[in-house]
Amino acid sequence: MDRRTLLKAGGGALALSALDMVPGGLMVAEAHQPSGGPGAAPFTLGVASGDPLPKSVVLWTRLATDPFDGGAGTRQVHVKWEVAADEHFRRVVRRGNTMAGPELGYSVHVEVKGLRPSTTYWYRFRSRGAISPVGRTRTAPSAGASPPSLRFAFASCQQWQRGYYTAYRHMAEQDLDLVIHLGDYIYEGNLNNFEVRAAPPEPVRPEPMDLASYRNRYALYKLDADLQAAHAAFPFLVTWDDHEVENNYASDISQVDAEPDQDRAVFRQRRAAAYQAWYEHMPVRASQVPAGPDLLLYRRLRFGDLAEINMLDTRQYRSDQACGGGLTPPCDELVDPARTITGPEQESWLLDGLATSRSRWKVLAQQVFMAQLDIAPGPDALLNTDGWDGYPASRDRLFGFIADREVSDVVVLTGDIHTSWVNDLKADFADPASATLATEFVGTSISSDGDGDDNGISALLPGNPHIKFFSNRRGFVQCELTRREWRTDYQEVPYVTRPDAPLTTRASFVVESGRPGAEQVGGAPIV
To answer: Is this structure's pTM higher than 0.90?
Structure first.
């Protein structure tokens, strides 16, 4: 259960040049070693889109002829962009110009407006005589619409050196409206073992502490062709977890580990660099440009009256982990009612949104395990203080609000733990007969922790009867929502330590509208 395993390494430092076709008519690139010489292609890190609204979407790229130069440069660079109603760009509906400069690492964030709701578009960029790969995106339904369905996947935890991103290649071939990424997009530790992928350049290997080194770490991840294919196929909704800055950090408190302790002022400087690098590499709006060590990340996106997705931030405002952190028996500090995982302002925002939502499905897209998970079932509980078990007052306030206000059809999406779970969220986890208030779907990692095995976790399930499913293989989770039901398919690959793994559906679950709790409808046995 220790998520900070030593970072073992690997991975070719790949860039993109020659174009190739993938299913759906998208253009992605063949992998080649990057070169930063004169005339080198600037679109080595691919393209992406995100945060779709009914008439607007964000388009992203970052100019990087040399992906590992830390975003160095002094000049502004002219960039053109186009959005078309067809993949061949015969019907261009929007086009424009923007500038990319060193202040944001030559990243480009274009907020295209005037689009049609529930419509698929294609986009591309031009700069320095080069044309980017083509991306595909889709706008959200109009506010008053009643869409018949919404299809999306969610993923998290893509530790580059632990495995290949084959799951993203399979994801790019699906028929989806969007993808939700729940954090740990990068991992911040030293790269010093290379068992799966080839070694990256030496300057990329140390643990990032400043802006240039965080930029280089993102570039290493972004050079992966399978990750680029998924970004080019669908708009992403993104949030972060801890490894985008440092493992298990809390607010402006650095983790106590083998590194020298950092006082809060020093750590806030590191957090500022990490937050800026995150913004520079994500398809998010200008309203999320960081102000030093602060970035307003939580937000709400609506998809007609079918779904409302609350993107949460459980890192930036949380209290420090209780009882010394890690796995621990309960202590007095743990149950302090002043402790919070969201911060009071975000908590109020979330509860107000749940109370006033007119959407059928209320989705909480967040980072860490929300259900109770007793690692030592019996009289002596053992809890993970980095998840919601470490913040029971926050969980009690949320669950109490859902129960008191009779908020229906709440579904929680979770990443972080590198394994797949389905959990009933109970009014009282100590009483299996208590009311089920909502359902939590926990997704496994893309590659973190390698191929995966049981790790003895199945033996814990009888002592946690609210848990309905567990698997420790890699992959992603696919969901389809209608007005009557929510279906979740756990999509897995059998290995990530070598490429080209096949995709299988491990298990499928359905939540009926008005009846909280998931029931298995297909796939393998539940454990």
So the answer is: yes
